[in-house]
Amino acid sequence: MKTKILLEILLVFICLPSYSNYQDKHRENGWYHVINRQKDSLSINPIVTVKDFIGLKLDTDIFGKYVINGQISKHKLNKWAVETGKAIGKQIAFTFKDSVISSPTVNARLESGAFQITSHSNKELLDIYKQLMKEKSDSLDALFKEWEKDSLYYELPPKQRDSAQMNIDYWEAKAWIDLTTKPKEHYWYSIQDSTEYKRLEKALKEELEKPNVSNKASDYMKSDAYKAYKQYLHDNEEYISLMFQGFMFKELKGLCGYLVDDIIQSKYPSVPSIRSYVNEAGNMDDERFAVYEWERKVWYQMNIAQEKPLQVDDRKAQRCFSIIGRTFIEEYIVPNQVTKSPLSAGTCIQIEEIPKRSWVADKEGYFKIDSLQKGKYHLTFSCVGLEHVDTVIFVNDNIDLKIILSDFSIHTPRLSLILSKKEENNILKDNFWDKYGLTVSWYTKESLQDKSQRLTILSYSHIVKRNQIVFDYLDKKYGYSWRFEAPKGIIGLDEKLDTYGIFTK
Predict the structure, then answer these.
(1) Do 35 and 43 form a contact (C-beta atoms < 8 A)?
(2) What is the DSSP letter of 91?
């Protein structure tokens, strides 16, 4: 797979390095269109910047010279493909500190997202790589400022931490930060029955598909289907989050944009127009982020509306609170060493005082329990194979909670792999595992690519951390000889392991 990607890069990019300085305007480090080669002219706006890179790695080409290989974030992959498609037969330039380092000619639309940065100077490229690593690391550190240090991550040596960090997607990390640190900009809803909403949405869709003499949005707004749909959302605002996932958000630059603005602004007048956000975006990827930013403004107004001060004469009204938290697992990954990491197994949360409901933590251990009134609550956290946790909490404000579930049984150290199906039998039957007292869990590349198995970049980084703890354990017990006997495909050990295209949300 890796060879295929590199061949694609070599076939697509005819590299013509340039070192001209573009002094007209400071530009972020990244890839740009070359507008006019004779005048050393670059586009003002970048195609992608360093924030959009994942998997940055310093490598060597067939001549032994340094190259920087990387991958575009899946959240910017469509933008990269569209813009390189526009540049076929033309040059694009990688700029660093306002100097062009490489300016290849594009021969085809680049769908895979793989790219390569070259330079005539080995020393220059080595320095650039170090600075790109720092730039990416700084962007992530800025996101996670003041967050609790992940004990597994900080137990890794610097080289392993760098490797794990290079594979973190900035946009996925930002989404998590937005979700967990700005609760008023995310609307947590629990809809038990969407039958009526789906009926009204279907009726509206059918109405909009009818031939109409007038294309004016105001004429469609007069229809019974539209009025019923709009009124339902005004009376049941939690269903607005379902509207965000519906058919109207597939095309917001036309009629649907006007309808969405009318529905939202008539209920929340301070929310800006979604059309202004979408129209300013130059491509589908940026448009998707623009819509997300707009949605957060709607969610903010929805949350604010729920938290309005109580009226003096409304004696029955009570303010509601939320518990936002994260679950961790404390376990022996290797004998005699207790470690803590986010619990990805889906912890079940129950409240004795609310017996008919339950909550489940997500794959990174995060959870939220909302609409709690002031009072005492008995919470139980349980996960298969782990000791459950009981705790009593008095709620009189929003609470940030951290829960640790323990597994102190001594398990055989386990390593995780990524293999192809044709390698599976030979590698899993290798006597290496019995010789060093190890168990194994594995993914196949084919299953990851067809999504029958799923692996996120964040969960991949956790696997790297866990594997490294096992590596250190084996080093201390057996010396370094085991590393030379290890089968290929072990995550965090196999430097040739290609993970491009296997990650999912």
Answers:
(1) yes
(2) B
Question: Which of 503, 501, 497 is CA-nearest to residue 163?
Answer: 497
Q: Is pLDDT of 421 > 80?
A: yes
CA distances from 309 to 2, 305, 394 (A): 59, 9, 22
What is the enclosing helix (H) or strand (E) of 32?
Answer: strand 30-36
Q: What are the b/e assignments for 414-443, b being 16+ CB within 10 Å?
A: ebbbbbeeebeeebeeeebbeebebebebb
Measured CA to CA, the distance from residue 94 to residue 327 in angstroms comes to 42
If we measure between CA atoms, which residue out of 119, 77, 62 comes closest to residue 96? 119
122 has pLDDT over 80: no
Q: Judge contact between 226 and 220, C-beta under 8 A.
A: yes
Domains and CATH numbers, the chain: 2-143 (3.30.1360.200), 147-181+413-505 (no CATH), 195-306 (no CATH), 320-407 (2.60.40.1120)
Say how many C-beta atoms besides its own lie within 10 A of residue 209's C-beta.
9
Instruction: Give the three-class secondary structure for 26.
Output: coil
CA distance 375 to 169: 40
DSSP secondary structure, 387-398, as one string: --EEEEEEESS-
pTM for the model stands at 0.55
Instruction: List the one residue out of 70, 61, 64 whose CA is nearest residue 29.
Output: 70
CA 101 remoteness from chain centre = 29
pLDDT at 11 over 60: no
CA dist list (Å): 23 to 50, 81, 127, 172, 247: 20, 28, 22, 33, 46
- Which residue, 347, 459, 322, is CA-closest to 400? 322
Residue 52 tokens read as: 């959009």
pLDDT digits (tens, 9 = 90+) for 300-340: 898 888 766 544 444 444 578 889 888 988 888 888 777 77
Cβ-in-10-Å burial (0-12, 13-18, 19+) of 82 comes to middle
For 16-30, how does the pLDDT look when each residue is reduced to its tens digit (9 = 90+)? 444 344 445 789 999
144, two tokens: 């996670």
Of 30, 198, 226, 177, the closest CA to residue 117 belongs to: 30
Q: b/e for 284-312, b at 16 or more Cβ within 10 A?
A: ebbbbbbbeebbbbbbbbbbeeeeeeeee
224-268 pLDDT, tens digit per residue, is 999 999 999 999 988 998 999 899 998 888 889 999 999 999 999
Instruction: Quote the pLDDT of residue 318.
Output: 57
Beta-bridge partners for 32: 93
CA separation for the pair 74, 83 (Å, rounded): 15
Tell me the CA distances in angstroms from 81 to 27, 182, 449, 475, 488, one per residue in order. 21, 32, 19, 44, 32
Q: What CA–CA distance (Å, rounded) separates 83 from 96?
A: 20
